[in-house]
């Protein structure tokens, strides 16, 4: 009885195990044979992301998730001088389908990026200060960015647009100026020290600080004005921003109105270099001729100074009366000079010569230097004395009285003239009071 029961139980257990094994193994075999979805082999990676054992759809979804995460954390900056525009990561596309197809035959596959030209153009159109979209090689710029972000790499910090110009910017002399009739005993040494000085990118150029940097002793106001004028004219031909410039009350002989700057121990001249590259100064001084030039990469536009609305101010004549001069005597002791009032602009042109912008820099004013004319002093009291002298012969007794009165009068006139002369000398460094001609 017992043995048949054990045999039946073993036979039943065998049948159960057999059925389970057949079901599982058969399912796996059938799935492997009849399934239409393949999986990627062991060790397969796309952009460093493992896809082994995944179907194409599973790998696709995994890549999309990683791309979305990358796009949220990435921005790309296009920079031109001190202006920039930022492209969002969502604008960068990746060729997922190409990567999935290549992964069937290769174990390490790149995920290629695509930066479409219309996207780049639309962003560059947003630049306000520098309209350079037409000068940029869009295909080259897009391809460069796409290569940098291939396989979800991080892009470089920024992309300088002038590196992708169709016409490349060359290294050359970008500005130069010559001042003639310049005389200063210190300028020669200063100019020698400044020759070869480099103005670094994004550097604020201060005349005072640079002279200290090149170890020269600054002790000449006239020399500072000469250098300030030269640098003002030089940087006016560049995109350097003029931060500080002063003018004097007298226009120097070596500069025209609108083209001069003043310097002193208190007054500085400053300009800012907004470019991503340095510029080198070349300076010389010979035979009272000062020459400055600036060497470096060409600018996007061309720059020049221009003066408009020039108004000449005619000098007036200041009349001074002097007791030392005879009646009717007069002499011009100072010749005046015209004054000026004018507006100063910086003109910005495209490289083809078309005017792009006209920026007002300042309104310069130089007061006129008036003529000074000196005349003999004539008062009413002098005429009365002459009249009294002409009637002395009419009466001897009265003449005696008249002579006494005349002596008193002469003494009084002498006192008044001396007092007037002293007052004029203290106020005008002359011998008598003065007035402007036409107001007598």
Automatic annotation (TrEMBL):
**Residue ranges of domain G5 in the record:** 310-376
Task: Point to the regions of Acidic residues compositional bias.
Answer: 404-413
Q: Where are the transmembrane segments?
A: 12-34
Family annotation (InterPro entries)? G5_dom (IPR011098)
Biased region (Polar residues) positions are 393-403, 414-427
User: Which stretch is the leader sequence?
Assistant: none
Coiled-coil stretches noted in the UniProt entry, renumbered to this chain: none
**The protein's name:** G5 domain-containing protein
Organism this protein belongs to: Halalkalibacter okhensis
Source organism phylogeny: Bacteria, Bacillati, Bacillota, Bacilli, Bacillales
